[in-house]
Amino acid sequence: MSVWAHTAGRAGLASVLSGTIMLSAAGCSPELRPLAAVYVDQQGNAHALLRSCADDGQVRGPELHGSVIRATEDAVPDEAQDAVSDPPTADEQWIGWNAGGLHKAADFPLFAPPQQWAAETRGPQALQPGYSYELAFGDPDDSYAYSASVTFDAPRLEKVPAGEVLTFRGTMTRKAFEDLAQRSC
Predict the structure, then answer these.
(1) How many CA atoms lie within 13 A of 87 on its CB side?
(2) What is the reported pLDDT for 24?
(3) What is the DSSP letter of 1?
(4) In the chain, N or C terminus with fewer CB closer than 10 Å?
C-alpha cells in the first residue's frame, strides 16, 4: 500500500468517525431553547412563563420538579447555584407538578398550572428551602427537536430584579425574553 493511500485511508476513517460522533452527539438530546422563564410578581408570588415554537402555541409535558439540594464538595452554604440536584432516591419524592400531554403555553403562578392541564401535584406547592427546581417542557411535535428548561432555587429566584425574568441564560427583562424566545424559533 502506498503512503498516500494509507494516509488517505486514515483521513477518510477519521472523517467518518468524526461525523458519526457529531451526529450521535447531536441526535442524543433535543436543542435547549430559551422558552421557559420564572419571575416574581409585584406581590411577591413566583410565576412560570412558557413560550412555544409551535404554530398552535402548545408545549409537551410541562413540569416543575423540585429535588433536595446536595452540596458539592466545593460549595459553601450561601452559594446555592453551586449546589447540584440529584434525582430523588426511593426514600425521597420530587415535589412540584407534572402535566403530561400537550398544553397551551402560558404565564401562570408557579405552583398553580392552568386547571385544564389537570396536573399531578406532589408535596408542598410553594418554594421550599433546600430544594432545587426545574421548570421544563418539550417540543410538542413528534420530532422532539427542542426542549426548554430553567433551574433555580428560592434564594436565586429572590435575587431576580423586579421586572426581570430568570432563564437558563440568566436574568433579563421580560421584553428581552420574549424577543429571544421568538428568535430561537
Answers:
(1) 1
(2) 40
(3) -
(4) N
C-alpha cell, 57: 402555541
For 184, the grid coordinates are 430561537
Please report where in the chains the cell 408535596 appears, as a residue. 123
Do 58 and 140 touch, CB atoms closer than 8 A?
yes
3-state class of 4 per DSSP?
helix
DSSP secondary-structure letter at 87?
P
Q: The C-alpha cell of 163 is what?
A: 421586572
Cα separation, 7 vs 4, in Å, equals 5
3-state helix, strand, coil in the chain (%, to 5): 25, 35, 40
Could you tell me the pTM of the whole model? 0.75
Q: Name the amino acid, one letter, at 54.
A: A
User: For the CA atoms of the chain, what is the radius of gyration?
Assistant: 21
Whether 127 has a pLDDT exceeding 50, the answer reads: yes
- Residue 90: its pLDDT value, please? 41
Write out the three cell numbers for 1.
Answer: 500500500
Tens-digit pLDDT profile for residues 16-37: 333 333 334 455 788 999 999 9
